Amino acid sequence: MIKKIFSNVKEYKKFALLSPIFVIIEVAMDIAIPFLMGLIVDRGITNPSKENILNLGTYLFLSVIFALITGILSGYFATKSSAGLAKNLRHSMFKNIQNFAFEDIDSFSTGSLVTRLTTDVQNVQVAFQMSIRLAFRAPLMLIFSFLMSLRIHVKISLIFLLIFPILGIGIGIIISKSFPIFNKIFRTMDKLNTTVSENLLGIRVVKSFVKEEHETQKFKDISLSLFNNYVRVGKLSALADPLMQASIYIVVLLLGWFGANYIVVDHSLSTGELLSLVTYAYQIQVSLMMVSMLIIQMIVARTSGMRIVAVLDKESSLDKNVDGETEIKDGSIEFDDVCFSYSKKEDKLALKNISLKINSGDNVGIIGSTGSSKTTLVSLIPRLYDVLRGSVKVGGKDVREYNLNALRDAVAVVLQKNQLFTGTVIENLRWGNENATYEEVERAAKIAQAHDFITQVPEGYDRIVERGGTNFSGGQRQRLCIARALLKKPQILILDDSTSALDNTTEKLIVENLKEQLPELTRITISQRIKSIEGCDYIIVMDNGEINGIGTHEELLETNEIYREISQSQEKEGDFDEPN
Ligand SMILES: Nc1ncnc2c1ncn2[C@@H]1O[C@H](COP(=O)(O)OP(=O)(O)OP(=O)(O)O)[C@@H](O)[C@H]1O
Ligand SMILES: [Mg+2]
């Protein structure tokens, strides 16, 4: 895991190396300062000598300045390299996420991916920054402070050894107790992010169902659980401070007691040396504190690191088959005894033994109650998911034999939940084909009946699309999505409930345009409305993952019960809606 994370330092390696070098110089200065202070007391004050004070004072001053400069530089380099690492990690993760198959995204959940890209990366960043500075600084300072103390007075320095077991055991207990809580915090964080992103995307639904209170309560509960866990960790780490303080006071007390003895009774210690010793004692305490902080941050980062690596290492469940066939002969589609399950389990089949043949250029309708697997059926054509059994063929070849990108270029899907992105109208349309000329864009927009409303405003094709396309009506968004799909110049066009927000006249116009201008195109239209599909060459009636019937509108009215029921119920509704 560590190797995988570190491989992302890349171009920031030199900063990551420079920082510890400056840290070493800084530590040398920090060690020299108490020593010089002791000397000033002994050679300048206890035995008054102005010259000594001036000389040693200059050294002290220079050491302080040097420590300051190297401290700033090492801090700067550490920040730069850790921020660089974070940037590269986010990049690598995002790039890999783009390659994920739909089922991979389902398996992580979007909230969790957001936490991994933000909080987790930040945890690793902080740990990395701390470790390049502290991993050298703390142990070096600890060792040298202790060595210098030994040099001053061996016996009295042994007092320092008292601190280690007290602190070691105390910190060990704190760390082992807080580790499981941190794990809980991460999972709660995932939940929090999922709730927030779901809510912001669905804010209109929340408001229209007057579910604000309900959602706020849900959020509050998660937030409270996060709070409680942080408080628990806080309580534990709050113990660390008094522990440190107590141990250091004990040491200083003992130093004072024995030190005074050595000074007065056997003169083996000077006042200046005692002063240095006390300062070293503080430095040892500070370095121990740094070590424990570092360990805690490392534990947090370890969990985060594993979560990041899980994203980096996740290989797309769909093999993109880059060496696969890139030519798609025609727009014919064949389902041969296809079974499919989202969970890959036999007993939870979303599609059961589907066999179906669609000729190139056919105009097919699909209807069926909600949850009858209409969307699932068409998702297998551009290989958004792979079949469990059987095969799906496009242009006479199994979809798995094609280069995935080539296949998806040939099969354009306007999804049920269509999505526009922040940018201009033309930028959104060119998502379908970034090299499309202005004329091509306009032609596609005209076919999709979008040109008129686009050019109604002065900005025209440069009009800004706001986040999620909220500044366009539902029907306008649908038409933009159809135009975007057409720009791919597909051989197969799948419209999954993508004309639901259009009035009958506009829908008819789009269908006529498609028929006239793109007669070769195989068209599959999923709709809940009979009116939208009655003109199709034939219609597939889906029921509970199975094909219940295939035929023309008239044939199905005669032979298919489900179709007849839908038709009758809609006729009644129609009477209501349109009195003429
Ligand atoms: N990503 C998914 N993961 C797991 N199960 C899913 C997923 N998408 C759909 N399903 C399940 O598969 C079944 C068929 O869903 P599908 O979306 O294909 O229905 P549909 O006919 O398109 O319905 P609608 O008319 O409401 O769009 C449903 O029971 C649904 O719960
Ligand atoms: Mg659907």
UniProtKB/TrEMBL annotation:
Domain ABC transporter: 333-569
Keyword Transit peptide found: no
Domain of life: Bacteria
Residue ranges occupied by any ABC transmembrane type-1 domain in the UniProt entry: 17-298
SMART domains: AAA
Location(s), subcellular: Cell membrane
Gene Ontology molecular function, alphabetical: ABC-type oligopeptide transporter activity; ATP binding; ATP hydrolysis activity
Residue intervals passing through the bilayer: 21-41, 53-78, 158-179, 246-265, 277-300
UniProt keyword annotation of Repeat present: no
Membrane-topology annotation of the record: Multi-pass membrane protein
Location, primary (coarse class): membrane
Pfam hit, one: ABC_membrane
One GO cellular component term: plasma membrane
Annotated keywords: ATP-binding, Cell membrane, Membrane, Nucleotide-binding, Transmembrane, Transmembrane helix, Transport
Name this polypeptide is given: ABC transporter ATP-binding protein
